[in-house]
């Protein structure tokens, strides 16, 4: 398995344009299309106010487990828009279906942007008329962005049954990041030949230790989805569960999803630093994940990282507010490989070394709970003045 220059897997094409959902002239509408119907899987936000595109696309995938195209816009979330919002999604699929000559049941819709604003269907239709398809155009990775500072994308190649298989992923996300699933909009395409239930299982498994382990601001979006299509054009024998091929593909998805999740955390709104927390020796996997995420999600810890101050007591507080099994007399804390606390007792350490570690743009914190044998990782970012400035003026 290796990371390669970004490209679409065999049989996938995309295109992007400026439809006008955003005032500035940046691209804000794109599509991703497979030359043949593909096995489809999805994981979705659990926010009680799921946006119309989330409701519609989830229903389509749950019913058919197949897709051939995604149409995605930024600048308007089509969220909290009632029956009209659902009707507009249906109209979108009908328009895309007509242009591509596809069954509308093979089309998924995703949106991101301002909540509570009806989709401007004239803009959508005009933008759709401009969209083209290319296997060399990667502007779709930019058209989905909102407050992101850069596109988030990765491509890998692996060998399955002596067939080269490509997996490509791209994502958006800077704010409103606290998944339970989804986190952001993220799209994974592969030319692997996969059983439909296998693809869904792999996606759900690997989400748990990647996208579900990042947080920027503790806010869960109404629009988040991670979607995947596998069109089988690599021509490998179909991948079934409990096989070495299943494990190989799952590893590939893990690399893609973890890489994208870290990119999202690092690009948190106004962020200066990526924070990676490892929790060792937890009572269970669930508790390992929960404690790691509690630490990266703590505003006090995030402010400490931004201020580059060694106030490890905030980490203790974050651990203690979870319901994880802990021994108050057996906690260990390490910054950047330098032990600060062992068996809940502060240690002597080089203050200048810690200052240099905290001045870096990637901070690694390790916590030993001494309660079991499970390990969890989570990613987040610092909390800066810029975060408030960006969100005070956010317009989609």
Structure commentary:
The chain has eleven helices and 15 strands. By secondary structure, the chain is an alpha+beta fold. It has two domains: 2-266, L-amino peptidase D-ALA esterase/amidase; 274-392, ArgJ beta chain, C-terminal domain (Ubiquitin-like (UB roll)), CATH 3.10.20.340. The longest helix has 23 residues, at 244-266. It is globular. Mean pLDDT is 89; it is low at 175-183.
Low-confidence segments, ≥5 residues, pLDDT <50? Answer: 175-183
Q: What is the tally of helical segments?
A: 11
Q: CATH-wise, what's the superfamily of the largest domain? A: L-amino peptidase D-ALA esterase/amidase
Question: What's the gyration radius in Å?
Answer: 22 Å
Multimeric state: single chain
- Count of all domains: 2
Q: What's the shape?
A: globular
The main β sheet shows up as: 9 strands, mixed
- Indicate the CATH topology of the largest domain: L-amino peptidase D-ALA esterase/amidase
H/E element string? EEEHEHEHHEEEHEHEHHHEEEHEEH
Percent in strands:
25-35%
Quantity of strands, as a count: 15
Residue-averaged pLDDT, rounded? 89
The computed structural class is alpha+beta
Provide the helix percentage.
25-40%
In the CATH hierarchy, the architecture of the largest domain is: 4-Layer Sandwich
The CATH class name of the largest domain reads: Alpha Beta
CA distance, first residue to last residue: 38 Å
């Amino acid at each position: 398995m290796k990371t390669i220059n970004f490209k679409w897997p065999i049989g996938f094409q995309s295109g992007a344009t400026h439809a006008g959902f955003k005032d500035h002239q940046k691209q804000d509408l794109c599509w991703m299309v497979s030359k043949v119907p593909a096995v489809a899987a999805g994981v979705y936000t659990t926010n009680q106010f799921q946006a119309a595109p989330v409701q519609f696309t989830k229903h389509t995938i749950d019913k058919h487990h197949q897709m051939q195209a995604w149409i995605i816009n930024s600048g308007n979330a089509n969220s909290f828009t009632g029956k009209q919002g659902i009707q507009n999604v249906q109209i979108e699929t009908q328009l895309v279906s007509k242009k591509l000559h596809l069954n509308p049941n093979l089309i998924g819709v995703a949106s991101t942007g301002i909540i509570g604003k009806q989709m401007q269907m004239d803009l959508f239709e005009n933008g759709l008329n401009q969209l083209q398809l290319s296997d060399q155009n990667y502007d779709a990775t930019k058209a989905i962005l909102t407050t992101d500072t850069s596109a988030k994308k990765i491509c890998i190649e692996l060998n399955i049954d002596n067939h080269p298989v490509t997996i490509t992923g791209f994502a958006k996300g800077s704010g409103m990041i606290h998944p339970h699933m989804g986190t952001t909009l993220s799209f994974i395409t592969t030319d692997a030949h996969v059983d439909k239930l296998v693809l869904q299982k792999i996606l759900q498994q690997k989400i748990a230790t990647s996208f579900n382990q990042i947080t920027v601001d503790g806010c869960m979006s109404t629009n988040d989805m991670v979607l995947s299509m596998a069109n089988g054009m690599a021509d490998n024998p179909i991948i079934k569960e409990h096989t070495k091929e299943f494990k190989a593909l799952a590893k590939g998805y893990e690399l893609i999803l973890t890489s994208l999740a870290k990119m999202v955390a690092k690009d948190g709104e106004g962020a200066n630093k990526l924070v990676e927390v490892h929790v060792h020796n937890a009572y269970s996997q669930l508790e390992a994940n929960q404690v790691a995420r509690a630490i990266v999600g703590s505003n006090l810890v995030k402010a400490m990282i931004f201020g580059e101050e060694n106030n490890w007591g905030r980490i203790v507080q974050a651990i203690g507010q979870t319901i994880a099994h802990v021994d108050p007399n057996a906690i260990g804390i390490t910054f950047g490989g330098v032990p600060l606390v062992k068996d809940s007792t502060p240690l002597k350490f080089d203050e200048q070394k810690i200052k240099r570690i905290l001045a870096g743009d990637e901070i690694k914190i390790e916590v030993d709970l001494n309660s079991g044998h499970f390990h969890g990782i989570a990613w987040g970012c610092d909390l800066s003045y810029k975060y408030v400035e960006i969100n005070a003026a956010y317009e989609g």
